[in-house]
Write a structure and sequence with these properties.
alpha+beta, elongated, 3-stranded antiparallel β-sheet, 19% helix, 192 residues
Amino acid sequence: VKQLVIKDDSVSSVILEDETTLNGNAFVISAGAKSKQIAKQINVKLDIEAVAGYQTLFSNPGFELKHALTYAAGGFGITPYESGVAIGGSIEFSTLDTPPNFDRAKTLVKKAHRVIPDLTNEAGEERIGHRPLTPDTLPVIDRAHTVNNVFLATGHGQLGVTIGAKTGEVIADLVAGRTSDIDLTPYSVKRF
């Protein structure tokens, strides 16, 4: 998202980086760590910072894995993808502009080698992902109070995939004007 187009007290459309314009009646800001920048355009202050997570994807890992595993003692997870197996984890407080520290990914792979002796010694593809984290670790699930038709669903930290489905359900209720089945007070954008 490059720009939110505001008419009267509502957002009428969104202009994307490639200049595509998307029109709508309601909009949800759910752009992870980039949500903060987008929300500024409608004068909403989101207390969200990026925390970096690291992952190494092995296209030929040397072992087969049918489901994701978490190795809590080692602080990492192992996830199968169609393209291979990923070793990932770590939280690094950073910004979206902070250069990656792939030593963190290498450390996770070293730990994984101790648990999975068949893990290949070939280099994998190191990747970084920024997660949106709030100071109290709770997501922001709310209506933007500066315009009539924008909703906020962000700040889930490393639990975005885990609680994303419930957030989607709650946001769908808000957009449709229905009362949520949970108390949304703890998730208010105004709590900060």
